[in-house]
Structures are given as C-alpha cells and as structure tokens.
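pasting for ref
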Amino acid sequence: MSEKSKTAPDAELDQIIASAKRLGIELDEAEALQWLTAIAVAQQDEDIAMDIKSGVFGHKVTMLDFSDAELAHFRKIGALVGFEDQPGVVETALALSGSAAQSKIQKYPGDADYFERVNIKADSKEDACCILAKIMHAKVRDTLKGPTYQLIEVKLGSYPEDVIRGERSLKKGSPIAWKAQEALDGKQEVNTADGKALVIEWEDAAQDPGWCKLDWVVAHPVHKHLVNASNMLDVTWEAPDGNITPLDGYLDPYFQEVYLEAESIPVFTKLAKHVSSDALDDYVQALEREVKKYLTGQPNYGKAAKRMYNIFRLTGRYIEAAFVRELFDEPATVLYQVWSLIRTIDDCCQPGTSITKEQMLNHADDLITMVVKELEGEEEVEIVRLLLRLRDFLSRQEPGQELSPQTEAARAELINIVNNFFYEKLTAVPVIEQYMQEIAKV
C-alpha cells in the first residue's frame, strides 16, 4: 500500500508504531492489527461472551484481554472475598475487575480486585438493608484474619452529618470507612462538628448503605508475595413483584468485569436488563474524573494509564488503546508492582495485623527478583538499589508499627521513578499527550 492510499487509521497506527519503536517498546504491527480487528468485531456483536473451557463470561471487549492462566488462583481468593448465595434470599455473581481482568496484557497486575452483584429478595427495602448488614458482618467475622489474610477496611453507609474522626473532618454523606475491629464490633465512635461524641451503629449505617466495599491483604500461597484484595459490592433489592432497586441508587454497568462462574449467568442476566442506556457514557465520564485525579495533585501516571486504556477501547480510540495495551505488556511495567508493595506495606502497618514480617519481606524479595529478571541497564541498577534499601528498612520494621522516616523516604524515591517511567512513555505519543492535557484542564 502506498503512503497516499493509506487510510487515516492506517496512518495513525504507523505513527503509534513509530512512537513505540522510538521508546523501545516492541509493538508488533501484525498483532496490533489483529487486536484492532477483534475489538471492531466485538463492538458489533452481542455484548456478552463466554469462554466455554473456563466457564467465565463478560463484556466481549473485556474478554479480549482476559487470560485464564491464573484463574485457579483468582478463584481461590474469590472464595475468601465472595459472598455465599442463600436460596430465595441472596443471589450473587462474583467477577474480577481492574487489572486482574486484563491479565492477558498485564503481566504484573497491581491488585486482586473483585466486583460482586448481590441481589437480595425481601418484602421491603428496609428488610433488604437488614439482610445486607447481617451478611456483611458475617463476612467480616469469618475473614477478619488468618495465616494468609488480614481484613483491613470495610465501607458501608454514609455519615449522617459532618463529623470529626481522629484528625480528619468528614462531610455529611461521606462514605463510612470502618476499620476491621470497628466493623466486627458494629460501631464507630466519632465526634460531631461541635465536638460532641457520636456513635455510628452498623445496622443504622446499612439502612443507607451507599458504597459497599471490603479490603484485605492476602499472601499468595505459591508466589509468596502479598496482594491487596478487594470486593466492591453492587447491592440490589428485589421486591416481591420482581422490581429491582439498587440500594446505592445506581446499578453499575458491566464493561470491566469477568464473571468467574457460569452458574451466575441467570442473576447477571436479570440485573443487566436494568442497567441504564446511558451506562457507557456515565462509565466513561467516571473514568475521566479518575484520570484527572491521577494527573493532578499527587500524580500516579500508572493508574491514569490504566484508566485511559479503558476509555480508549470503549470510545473507539483503538489506536491509542493499542499503544497503552502494549505498554502494559512491557517488561518495564513490573515497576507497577512497586505501588502494590507500597500499599501493602501501609496495610501491614496497621495494629493487630496477622501479616508477618517474613511475608512482607518475601513480597519485597519477589519484586526484586522480578526487576532483576525483566529490566536491564541503569534502570535496573537504580530500582534494585532503592528496593534493597527499602527492604533493609522493612527488616527493622515490626508489623503494626508506623513506618520510619527512612522507610517513607525510600518509598517516595521509588514512587518518583515509577511515575517518571509512565509519564515519559505516555507523553511521547502526541495524541495521548494532548488527551492528558485536555483532561487535566477540565
């Protein structure tokens, strides 16, 4: 094909390939074209695809990026974080989300993020909220801590008025974040804006549940590193007449989930019918707000890149998506695991943790090994130097204690290097740099 006869998309792909080559990113033109063709076909067919071999299903565009290589591992964690069905009362559909659902392109996913649809059948909304309070409290009780896991935080309900918690001022309507012990006890003590003591009861908070989420730290039984595991709940009430009502006022779309069990197809299908026709636009707008957050203030260009990939592939900007997709398949994106290590360190410094120092150090050792294996040259030397320095400080750190100033400083240096890597790669592509500038200004 001559240069003059090339279509605009062809020319754009050539520019992306040239940018990737200049940056040292191995973007294979044939593979990129194959993916672009597959995603174009997926957009034209039915929304949902199922992998018969593994029994997983999800949005067709999402399924293009999913690999079942670690499926057994994710199902095992899913057994910890997921909720049980109760015939005639509670029905669920558990899915992977985030980078875990994009395992075909992300060699080193950050966290084990789950999303679960929880449909509660009850005579009234109040009864449904009471059932939600009970099953969430049971999950807290049963997964509080164990040899390979530690519950960190639960989100349930919203503050009924402006409050002060510790040194933080929280506005009326802000999500209530319960520490693990608070969730187990079923109460949280705060102060009102004028300094009076206020006790938030678990059952009362559940009557307006809002954003429901649970977070754990889990030790991988094989790889020996630690991973942050979360389960975001989308809870609905099904009335006796079959009417479906989201308890947080909004039924989440399904553009980034891979559902783990074929048995959950009926409940998924029932709930998906009620997803708004504007769901895609709303989802993209929510992602763009997150991109803006990660581009400004305290930047996190890795997280911004992940969200931009989802925006690009869902809005027809497939050429840009192809570049970011390849970026996350690069060996250097092992650096993204640095954020995972740092977040895990924070969680392990909470009082009463069951995560041991040995598990935390194993996690650091595993990351150092991956960096040595995947990177080379000055980049590897500097990252390994900083990781070894951080590991040394961690070896003197006791679980449950606050991080030392030296550990904080070593952590900050690592974050800066990771940020620089993603920033340089993203801004080297003119169309992506322009998009970032536009989002940051909004």
